[in-house]
């Protein structure tokens, strides 16, 4: 049993993993994934046996490229560390078929996982608060821009869109809200202050 308990800590674990980079411009993604893999290669407890790069693909406004790595990791602790540090999209343990983790290894893994989850949760809440703040202020700016434009002249939705730089469909939502609040009025497709 002692031999089995040490297996997890000291076993050489062969696995396949996928690491993906998403961003823009295209050249940045191409360079970033290669630099990332070079950084991984510097880790003395990891050995990359094979690396297979995908073709870069456009995904909306961003570019995506991934690499499938066949690698050997020294021990379960390092494997878990690899997952936390390099954030692979997926990982498949190929060999050995059975691994044993000690209670301290499992406890450390779970505590690291919890700490990272709490950190991610804090970041998400902080970004949500910042996003809400920005949305609120952007709405106020757009609201005021529409009122200032209409103070100068009666304008169509198309003209308001051109002046504010906001897409006509999106701007219509703000204009409808101002109409309901009786801050502006509409006559013959032209808007003016109420």
Can you summarize this structure?
By secondary structure, the protein is α+β, with helices and mostly antiparallel strands. It has helices at residues 2-10, 26-41, 75-86, 103-152, 157-164, 168-180, and strands at residues 12-23, 46-53, 57-59, 62-74, 90-95, 184-187, 190-193. The relative contact order is 0.11.
The amount of beta strand, in percent, is 25-35%
Q: What count of domains describes the coordinates?
A: 2
Helix vs. strand class: alpha+beta
**CATH fold type of the largest domain:** Alpha-Beta Plaits
CATH class of the largest domain: Alpha Beta
CATH architecture of the largest domain: 2-Layer Sandwich
Number of helices: 6
The succession of helices and strands, N to C, reads HEHEEEHEHHHEE
| Biggest sheet details | 5 strands, antiparallel
The Cα radius of gyration reads 27 Å
Helical percent range?
55-70%
Low-confidence stretches: 1-6
Shape: elongated
Mean pLDDT: 86
Number of DSSP strands? 7
First-residue to last-residue Cα separation:
84 Å
How is the quaternary structure best described? single chain
Characterization of the model:
The radius of gyration is 27 Å and the shape is elongated. The longest helix has 50 residues, at 103-152. With 194 residues, the chain is an alpha+beta fold. It folds into 2 domains: 7-101, Alpha-Beta Plaits (2-Layer Sandwich); 133-193, Arc Repressor Mutant, subunit A, CATH 1.10.10. 56% of the residues lie in helices and 26% in strands. Strands 1, 2, 3, 4 and 5 form a 5-stranded antiparallel beta sheet that branches. It has a two-stranded antiparallel sheet with strand order 6-7.
